[in-house]
Amino acid sequence: MPTDTTWIGDDLNLPKDYYQKDKLDLDLWFQITQIDYEKLLSIHLTIYLNHLLKQNSNFWI
């Protein structure tokens, strides 16, 4: 493992226009994150419900 850390800063010099407000498409960003959040929530609820059903296997009887 290299011990010289002087190279770390070289890759972090992003162009300044990357962070400019007029370059950001916030509507698109929120649409994508909303979809990702909905998928995450759906997966979490499915896993949680499966877990509950396994714990209470006689639940439906």
Structural class: mainly alpha
Strand content: under 5%
According to DSSP, the number of beta strands is 0
Looking at the chains present, what oligomeric state does this protein adopt?
Answer: single chain
Summed up, the domain count is 1
Instruction: Give the end-to-end Cα distance, rounded to a whole number of Å.
Output: 59 Å
Main sheet characteristics:
none
Count of DSSP-assigned helices? 1
Give the topology string: H per helix, E per strand: H
* Nearest-integer average pLDDT: 73
* Helical proportion, percent range: 40-55%
Q: Would you write up a description of this structure?
A:
The chain is mostly helical and 61 residues long. The chain has one domain (16-59). The protein is 49% helix and 0% strand. The chain contains 1 helix and no strands.
Summarize the structure.
This protein is mostly helical and 61 residues long. The protein is built from one helix and no strands.
Quick tags:
61 residues
Topology at a glance:
Elements: H1 26-55
